[in-house]
Amino acid sequence: MNIVSLLPSATEVICELGLGDRLVGVTHECDYPAFVKNLPKVTKTLIPHDAASAEIDALVRERMKTQRALYTLDLPTLERLAPDLIVTQALCDVCAVAEAEVTAAACRLPGRPRVVNLEPTTYLEMIECIQTVADAASVRASKTILSLSLRVDALLKRTQKMLERPGAVMPRVVLLEWLDPPFSSGHWTPELVTMAGGDEVLGKAGERSRTLTWDEVAAAKPDVIFIACCGFNVERTLVDLPLLKVKADRVFVTDGNAYFSRPGPRLVDSLEILAHALHPTIHPLPPGLPAAIQVHPE
Predict the structure, then answer these.
(1) Which of 101, 105, 152, 200 would be 190's cystine partner, CB 3.0–4.6 Å?
(2) Pick from 88, 160, 155: which is nearest to 123 by CA?
(3) Based on the number of CB atoms within 10 Å of its own CB, is 59 exposed (0-12), middle (13-18) or buried (19 or more)?
């Protein structure tokens, strides 16, 4: 079975299920596990590589008005790869190849490959997506799901034990997915904040992220500001850090490209990174995971 992934999180799911040797094509954004960087790319982006955050935001908003995606398929490459299974998403037609374009392309390909759409908005739905991909590829997901679940259960027990202590208080958290303009967290991320022992005061679990004003962020009176900019690594996020207009007792920056933005197995990594930042004496950082960087904006 030849598999093409049109989403970085789908690529990570496919590889976590042991299907990496069947993966023949990925998106231009897929970078984990490392070997996928060498696979043929079946998508292109319309976003300039050196665009500022405000420019990217303007491009996204303009595309949303016209219902046109910022990414498009490389049809000749897709045809050459002759996939039997295409894993994509229908959650956001701007931040990935549009569902209609994928469906139309699949209809023109020899053998009419199966198209599987993933649309997780919560942690549990991400787990269900792992099962969906496994079913489509006729492999078992139980070992993968159990491994992730055991890690989450252990963390939840530590959080619960902490909250049962007399006088325990959950820190008020604002997790920002963008800085210019500021965006609240959305979908699965507010849920991760709660699981980690924080109180996300602006983002709503299961709902989309939304544009904020800095006055709104300040009015939320966060104890912790946690920054995980969608699609940005730590170095790129630090470029925008001077845009932060609100102070908090603690401010953290993490790799929003590798963590939080991708609804795949590394959401559990994201949870562990967040929990360690909020409660370092309660939640140890697992070996191999990068700690969120605590910064001190002026």
Answers:
(1) 200
(2) 155
(3) middle
Looking up residue 75, the CATH number of its domain turns out to be 3.40.50.1980
pLDDT 10s digits, 252-263: 999 999 999 999
Q: Domain range for residue 75?
A: 3-142
pLDDT for position 149:
98
Q: Is the domain of 192 the same as that of 244? A: yes
CA distance 201 to 190: 9
- Bridge partners of 4, per DSSP, are 25, 86
Amino acid at 297: P
Q: Are residues 128 and 225 in the same domain?
A: no
Same domain, 59 and 187: no
* Same structural domain, 121 and 181: no
Pair 231, 238: CB distance under 8 Å = no
Decide if 4 contacts 79 (C-beta within 8 A): no
**Domain-embedded: residue 91:** yes
Residue 162 lies in a domain: no
Q: Residue 156 region, left (φ>0) first, then alpha (ψ -120 to 50), else beta?
A: alpha
Q: Which residues of the chain are modeled with pLDDT < 70?
A: 48, 63-69, 90-96, 98-99
Among residues 12, 17, 18, the alpha carbon closest in space to that of 27 is found at 12
- 160 inside domain: no
Nearest residue to 10 via CA among 87, 90, 119: 87
Rounded CA separation 231/57 (Å)? 12
